[in-house]
Amino acid sequence: xxxxxxxxxxxxxxxxxxxxxxxxxxxxxxxxxxxxxxxxxxxxxxxxxxxxxxxxxxxxxxxxxxxxxxxxxxxxxxxxxxxxxxxxxxxxxxxxxxxxxxxxxxxxxxxxxxxxxxxxxxx
Length: 123
Hints:
52% of the residues lie in helices and 18% in strands. It has a single domain, classed as GMP Synthetase, Chain A, domain 3 (2-Layer Sandwich). The protein is of the alpha+beta class.
């Protein structure tokens, strides 16, 4: 990936991270923009989001973001000043959810720590 495309991807992610909380659509819940990936010609960009809540809330949020695509693209165009503004598509990023689940599994498999009283007796 070229350095320019990496910078544009990060700039898109930042602009959308700031713009999404200002949207008034009640379908849009708590969203974190985890990344963006533009095509080589900047015609399209896939925006990866993590949504806090159930699968139903996730679907509603993705519908709301898709409905607000024009507003968000206009914001990206204004702030980045690219010759060609990419058409945005939104996809759920399960990485955060997977990370939380892995943390839970590690906690379950880790041996229990000795109680505070036992450590004091040993010293």
